[in-house]
Amino acid sequence: MKKYILALCAALLPGCATVPKDLRPVDGFDLGRYLGVWHEVARLDHTFERGLTKVTAEYSLRADGGVKVLNKGFDQRKNKWKEVEGRAYFTGEKTTGSLRVSFFRPFYGGYNIIELDKEGYQYALVAGPSKSYLWILARSPELPPATLEMLLAKARGLGFATDKLIFLK
Fold it and tell me: Domain 2-167 falls in which CATH fold?
């Protein structure tokens, strides 16, 4: 687990808690509605998640006003669950979907919600500190095909390598 955390920190350190160039986090963000469990539908590959399936992120409030982040995934090679706990804090206004997240302080990386279902909070497109980090999240493990295609088109239009996405089930 320590190796997993160190890889995650090393990956996020270069970009710190920044927003990738030409991207804008969503406005009108409501943390209360975002809290809870999100399923990873697709992601760009990185060592800290390599080989993991059934990945979820659970967000809850921390006593210090931040957000507790519990990431969990199944490692097929080792036939066991892995989890890591982190913390996140807004980088500015609490109505803007831009946070900095850390799984190993003092290192923080950007967590930028660049597309969000503001009606039902059922899907989100999340970028890390650079365009080499992208996640498609949903409240259930799968999205309707039209919704998934809309998110892929948005990501492609913003310059993400959507042809390299790993789709989870």
Answer: Lipocalin (2.40.128)
